[in-house]
Amino acid sequence: MGNSYAGQLKTTRFEEVLHNSIEASLRSNSLVPRPVFSQLYLEAEQRLSALEGGSRVDNEEEEEEGEAGLEPNCPPNPYQMHPPPEGCCTTDGFCQAGKDLRLVSISSEPIDVPAGFLLVGAKAPSLPDHLLVCAVDKRFLPDDSGHNALLGFSGNCVGCGKKGFCYFTEFSNHINLKLTTQPKKQKHLKYYLVRNAQGALTKGPLICWKGSEFRGRQATAGPCSSSLFPPLDCAGPLAAFSGEPTPGTNPSVPTGAQPTGPASGHPPLTAAAGPAVFNGKGSPKHQPLVKNKLSAVARPSALGVLSNSGPPKKRHKGWSPESPSAADGGYPQGGGNRAKYESAGMSYMPQAGLVGPASVTFPVVASGEPVSVPDNLLKICKAKPVIFKGHGNFPYLCGNLNDVVVSPLLYTCYQNAQSISRAYEQYGAATIQPISEETQLLLTVYYLVQLAADQVPLMEDLEQIFLRSWRESHLTEIRQYQQAPPQPFPPAPSAAAPVTSAQLPWLAGLAASSCNDSVHIIECTYSLAEGLSEMFRLLIEGKLAKTNYVVIICACRNAAIDSCIAVTGKYQARILSESLLSPAEYQKEVNYELVTGKVDSLGAFFSSLCPEGDIDILLDRFHQENQGHISSSLTAASAAKSASLDVSGAPACTSHSLGPHHIRPFQLAVAQKLLSHVCSIADSSTQNLDLGSFEKVDFLICIPPSEVTYQQTLFHVWHSGVLLELGLEKERMTKQRVEQYVLKLDAEAQTKFKSFLQNSFQNPHTLFVLIHDHAHWDLVSSAVPNLYSQSDPSVGWVDRLLNCREVKEAPNIVTLHVTSFPYALQTQRTLISPYNEIHWPAPHSDGADLYAENKKYFGLSEFIESTLSGHSLPLLRYDSAFEAMVTALGKRFPHLHSAVIRTFVLVQHYAAAMMAVRGLSQMKNYTSVETLEIAQNLLNSSKQCPCGHGLMVLLRVPCSPLAALAYERLAHVRARLALEQHFEIILGNPSSGLTVGKHFVKQLKMWQKIEDAEWRPQTYLELEGLPCILIFSGMDPHGESLPRSLRYCDLRLINSSCLVRTALEQELGLAAYFVSSEAPPEKEPRSEGPESDAEKLSSTDNEDEELVTEGSTSEKRSPVKRERSRSHDSASSCLSSKASGSGAAGGETSAQPGGPWQGEQARSPQPCGPPEEGRALGDRQRPRASQGPPPAGSRHSPGPAPQPDSGLRSSQRSVQAPAAPPSQLCPSGPLSSSTAVPQGCSAARACRQPPIVFLPKLVYDVVTATDGSGLPKAASLLPSPSVMWASSFRPLLSKTMTSTEQSLYYRQWTVPRPGHMDYGNRAEGRVDGFHPRRLLLSGPPQIGKTGAYLQFLSILSRMLVRLTEVDVYDEEEININLQEESDWRYVQLGDPWPDLELFTKLPFDYVIHDPKYEDASLICSHHQSVKSEGRGTPRKPEDLYVRRQTARMRLSKYAAYNTYHHCEQCHQYMGFHPRYQLYESTLHAFAFSYSMLGEEIQLHFIIPKSKEHHFVFSQPGGQLESMRLPLVTDKSHEYIKSPTFTPTTGRHEHGLFNLYHAMDGASHLHVLVVKEYEMPIYKKYWPNHIMLVLPSIFNSAGVGAAHFLIKELSYHNLELERTRQEELGIKPQDIWPFIVISDDSCVMWNVVDVDGGGERSREFSWSERNVSLKYIMQHIEAAPNITHYALIGMRKWSSKTGSREVREPFSRCHVHDFIILNVDLTQNVQYNQNRFLCDDVDFNLRVHSAGLLLCRFNRFSVMKKQIAVGGRRSFHITSKVPDSPAAVVPAQYICAPDSKHAFLAAPAQLLLEKFLQHHSRRFFPLSLQNRGHPVLSVDCYLNLGPQISVCYVSSRPHSLNVSCSDFRFSGLLLYLCDSFVGASFLKKFHFLKGATLCVICQDRNSLRQTVVRLELEDQWQFRLRDEFQTANAKEDRPLFFLTGRHI
Q1: Which pLDDT does position 1471 carry in this prediction?
Q2: Which of 68, 302, 591, 1902 could serve as 418's disulfide partner, Cβ 3.0–4.6 Å?
């Protein structure tokens, strides 16, 4: 029973192993030999444990096993249960009192749990699927490591309430477990029970009984006795737990957080246990059993967290479960809900696969006697020791708990390091074991040993060390498994045996021996309690004065170790203890110290420092002595200065000019990227954004609750003009109107936001952009506001408002998050898709040349670069004198928070520095060089400028009470020193506006030429040029931009303990700056040799050198590396007495030639209106007189800010909002060349160089250090306090990563904490969890993001307007002067439909009036007045299609749309199923014979299922029989009777085939007629449209073929329908005979409303309006006698239409583009299937000559959209000769037969038509400009060009022709003439002498036959050389033609 600690190494043996290891390492010839200790702790481990393992025995285990009386692999002893008492309940799941104990039954019932008891679940063999609820005293349950459970049992029945069961056997009988084996609590009490979020009791983690888990940490680190393998029946629960998160504790652990678990399919980790060493009872004989069971035992793959330091085995009276644990202040003890509290309050660490209460779930349970913390510990030690729990159990602390801090961070770090990263699972998780606890502890010691005295340990560093060590130790396995698939039982690793717990103290001591006692090792024999007591004793005795870290190790009992690490170094302990405070606690602590007067001792100490008495006494004395003298001299000076200003009218140093607002190229590029992302959301198939349905843009900008940021954003919105551009406001906007577009996220935000939501709901056609600026602020979930609400009531508004259901679901709200620090929005659960992130273009990227910038941006990387060697003056510095004083005072005042001490010291330094500059030189010793430099430059700056411009000094004091204290103190010192008129002190508080003294407001108004008497500066940008100290308070900057006169950014007071990437970059972002990269022309004396400006500008390194100054070299600087960071402003910064005087001249003298002027010039780009940060706010709306061109970067332009401003905006940088300061502010800013005085305005100089930044030493070290990847150390810190790492096994960020790659890195490796608003995102049921309308714009601070997103709003608005507009052809009708005389007009002006009798009497107007035929031949008729020969100048051929006139029209609600239009109404019409699957469609063949072609025509229909009702099939799904046609007598208004056919080619995306809105939703039949090769692409884009696919022989045919087939098919279908419906008793003439043939570019239709005022009245007024196609079609279809008309059409729209065109309602003339064709009447009139051009004119003439009526409704018009692709443009005429360079011209389209002419790849008909259009004068020379003698064209109309007129005649019998008796023709054109043309027919016509003939035939043979048949040689003379052919190869069937002259 006694505890024995077998297994201690024999020293000699260990020394031998150690010696061998060291020798091997020394002899190693590998390139990178490992350090000795590395070998010891990494490779020797396994060998050592193998050496000693066999002899080690764990007596505790023996004891327990002995008591148990059996082992899992032995047959169970028979067990006889006592019979239950008479009459009691024996039902399974109920207690003997008959009460239900099943968890499912009582999970929601209240259960009374006594203090110190926990609810656990027991398993009954008879109820395998149920847990029985029991209350058990937690002292008898194990801790996390499976130990410390007191022997015995104490429990209560929760059913009947019976208490006091002292034996588990008795209890198991009571709850009817009905066991067949001896009852053991370890075997039957299985799970902790926890309450979930709904308060229901659920199964929690497994209870970690010692024997039910594998205990070995590293498989070989400790012996594995066979008794450790649990019986098979527990594999189930184990597997369930390891794979699924515990209900109620952490329901949404990301997969990466639990990279372990049996789910991986690999055998459990213990399988990899090298040569397994078993101890005790018969190791070898159980091995087969172990192997057999391994696969069945499911367990997490990382087990390194189970420690086993056993508690007293006997029941200890003093060990009460209720005893408080001082250590874990935040973890409630007792009660069943521990798990819930802990998981919410503690950052979640990836579960290392613990079975049993995980660290996340339960705090480490203390064991042993409590340790008493001595009184007066803080007083004696001068710091609160910080104790980090390590491995194993941590004892209770009692006594003076206020003087110690206990943290679980290290425990968490160790646990994380035991989880195996997903990245390595591929190698076979079972084969690679986590680092052993011993190794972890040893590595921790090595890490602490190498820390310098002024360094503080970082958990991130430790995690990386663990990762590297783990990788090295498993390199061979990793490589092996990269090459081979994992095997179930891999061979044992061959590495040396691991460090054992017994060797650990010795190795740790060896490691610590070289560090001069900086790390002290304490080894304990029994428990950590001894070591802690020893440490407290040594602290009290002062023996640890030089020790920074105490490592306490208890490694004597069994294989597990207990450890903890105490930080006792005063510096480290202070920083670490303060870093554990939350921001709210930090403020609370500081407030407490100020309120209770604890700081008074500090003030008293300062007073005692000054040898001449209290500083205040010195100040009073100075004030009295100098009062009269100073005030009079100041008054005189200021009077003189103001007088000079008044005379000159402007400060001498400024060339203040107003310029237009400029958008910088980068901003425009970013705005366009934003727009393209929005378009890609709209274009995606998910239908999440329908841009086509929006008509305008509205927006709301949400910003943090900072008054300055609010005013700054208002300024940018006002001056960007975006409100006017979006049409939201009129020209005369008031500030109140602008305010409704900017929302401060505070308690009053809800009302404004509700109205925004209401507005979005009421305006579904407005796209609302919700811009969340400074989006990394306030990511707190609104579900857990209680954590913060007391300290910050504004927390949680972002989640409450921007993530509300209304915003997420509104289809017209797009959310844009804008931030410089996007990391907290880039987690595993973010709502923002990685595809919706837009990153600011990197200035060094290859694409940077695309955006020529004239400003150089100085951000964090440039500041860091300035600290590297080669830069004369670093821009980042720290103040060693200040740090030394703070450290010393920290030791003297350990009770005070360091923020208080730092603030007091810094304020004291400023006070002393101001006194020194004012002449109290003795005070120089009480300040630092850096602070003195700041004071000198601040006080001297305004003296160097004729108009008093000065520098700004930013003093950052995050804690508001301390900021107020600093303000009061500095204001007091300033008053005593009579400096009130020299510089202002401004307290900047986020919650309030600015307060600036009247004197300074007057100066600002004068500089900025502001007339408004009420004006006050409201943003920091408006303080441009004002000499001032800005005390900037608030825990975080909220996006405020600073002016370019900022010279010093003093960040020495920032909370240096908060080492988080966002916090650091945010503070440093305050200094981000734009420097002009163009040097102004001014020249200055330089002390150094000239370096050309060009050279200067070309080097990025040298940009900072402009800052160089003589700086005094005499000062002492402690660290060598600080030598460089001397003060570098004006020479005045030298401490020598000459400082104040010579400053002006020496100032920047040493700067390189390009110097200060050149670049600093614009700190931030000028204020551009919308510019982002515009550091230019100052202007406001005041008018200013422009004074001449500003220098390249003039930074002053105020309001409208000149181009500088543009930079400015970009400068938005750190704060998010405005970026560019108004350069305007500081007139001095842009020194004009005329004022190149050597001592010029220092504010202007400041504007041309970035500010100097002072940092705390700790932060400076972190920022300037680099990690292994070459990135600044800051980049590898935790990205944001609201997230945590998903795993410590993560790669480092790489220096080469782009912003996108960094985003993906954080998305993989970070998870939100429970308080983060994205924490619950995965539970929303979306597969990917991304919100489709959410974007993220990130860019460096102050770079101009505000300007970019305002520009984005503008171009988005323009695009939406453009989407709702369309370019339509807008051309006047041509040949109006050739119309017939007026007595041939339709006179009944009021008729809605044509009167058939009247209309028949109208003559046909042969003249073409459609403007698209402006280049076509005129058609002559005897009706035309022969006057006016000229037709005006025809356009050049190349102008015809390119330069046709268009007008931009707004799409109406009745427009036809292309494939880019998506809206709710037409989703189904377009074939987008609610589930976004395309409609099915079927292919049907349809054949009919056509005699003229001499063969059967086979067409194919593609008919979607949704359109099958329009067709008749032989049976469902059978043969297609016909297309249904309605009856003439149908009067329904629900549908359109005429089927619409649209021939199209090359316009699958752009064709206007969506007629849903045009038809106003009415049912209609629409068929797309496509070529065979284009069918798949049309089907893809228009899945729900019926397609008519032309036969493949028509693939190269023109529109004539499509028209021909449409008409023939329609007539054939009419016949079929007549036959079909005749059987139903319907007369053939009652079937509707009309079809519509529409162009694919008809976009809208209009109707003219006429108010005639009487039939013949002269008054005639009309108006035109847009109507639906449904309206027009139903009107026409309702016309009486409509079946008597063969062809009906309408006008083409033109804005130039006059009353003349619409006065007569109907005309009998040509119709084009959109025609309604009567296929019955036109049965015998065909389209020419060979035609490409003018086929509609040709067909119109044929129809008229057949005696049929063509009617044009003049009061209807169609608008045709200009579409730049497809249509006739699809036909390209190219040479068949490959690589023929020259373009083919029309003259080459024909050639002589049998010539060697290069053949062309184009249809013969197209070549013919094109040739005749351009070169017909070769055939008809007499016809040129000869309208009186046209060319006679028989049976066809071919376009012979605009200079030749034609007369069309038909050879058909009984046809209507023009009377030709009056004409003598100048030519004859016979085109493919048929048998109706005979010799006698031609002899009726008369020709001029010399007239020419052109006969065109299909081949040479038919050409000769035609000449003979028509007896042409009688009247016409032919020559052999007059025969031609089109330039086609023989296989392309060229056309042949013969020309001749009339004899």
Answers
A1: 74
A2: 302
Q: pTM for the whole thing?
A: 0.66
pLDDT of residue 773: 97
Q: Burial-class residue 777 by CB neighbours within 10 Å (0-12, 13-18, 19+).
A: buried
Considering Cα of 228, then 234, then 237, then 240, what sign does the dihedral take? positive
CB 522 within 8 A of CB 535: yes
Whole-angstrom Cα distance, residue 681 to residue 687?
A: 8
Per-residue pLDDT, 1658: 57
List pLDDT tens digits, range 1123-1158. 333 333 333 333 333 333 333 333 333 333 333 333
Report the run of H or E that residue 555 belongs to, with start and end: none
pLDDT at 306: 34
Percentage of the chain modeled with pLDDT above 90:
45
- pLDDT, residue 749, reads 92
Residue 311 has a CB neighbour count (10 Å cut-off) of 20
- Residue 317: its pLDDT value, please? 36
Under 8 Å CB-to-CB from 577, ≥6 apart: which residues?
383, 384, 386, 405
Q: What is the DSSP letter of 1898?
A: S
Q: How far is CA 1158 from the centre of its chain?
A: 36
Pair of tokens at residue 1790: 């024909």
Place of tokens 């980068």: 666
Phi, psi of 1243 (to 5 degrees): -65, -35
Q: What is the pLDDT of residues 619-629, one digit of tens each?
A: 888 998 887 66
Q: DSSP letter string over 1830-1886?
A: -EEEES------TT-EEEEE--STT------TT--EEEEEEES--TT--HHHHTTS-
User: What is the b/e burial string over 439-463, where b = at least 16 CB atoms within 10 angstroms of the residue's CB?
Assistant: bbbbbbbbbbbebeeebbbbbbebb
Specify burial of residue 1660 (Cβ count, 10 A radius: 0-12, 13-18, 19+): middle
Tokens standing for residue 222: 């400790």
Q: What is the mean pLDDT of residues 1646-1669?
A: 79
The pair of structure tokens assigned to 1686 is: 């063969």
Nearest CA-CA partner of 1867 in 1826, 1904, 1928, 1811: 1826
**From the DSSP assignment, how many helices (H) and strands (E) are in the chain?**
55, 54
Residue 349, Cβ neighbours under 10 Å: how many?
Answer: 25
Under 8 Å between Cβ of 1862 and 1422: yes
Strand pairing category for 1800-1801 and 1774-1775: antiparallel
- pLDDT on residue 1070: 94
Nearest Cα to Cα of residue 767 among 1361, 1169, 1449? 1361
Rounded-to-integer distance, Cα 597 and Cα 757, Å: 49
Contacts of 732 (CB under 8 A, 6+ apart): none
Is residue 286 a contact partner of residue 417, using CB atoms and an 8 Å limit?
no
Q: Report which of 1715, 1758, 1466 is spatially closest to residue 1585, judged by C-alpha positions.
A: 1466
More reliable by pLDDT, 269 or 1239: 1239
Tens-digit pLDDT profile for residues 728-776:
888 778 888 899 999 999 888 999 999 999 999 999 989 999 999 999 9
- pLDDT bin (cut points 50, 70, 90) of residue 533 is very high
Alpha-carbon span 1731 to 982, nearest angstrom: 89
Q: Which long-range contacts (CB under 8 A, 24 or more apart) does 594-601 make?
A: 594/900, 594/961, 594/962, 594/965, 598/895, 598/896, 599/896, 599/900, 599/904, 601/893
1358-1404 pLDDT tens trace: 998 888 889 999 999 998 887 655 556 777 888 899 999 999 999 99
Tell me the backbone φ, ψ of residue 363, rounded to 5 degrees: -70, 160
Residue of higher predicted confidence among 316 and 547: 547
Helix (H, G, I), strand (E, B) or coil at 289: helix
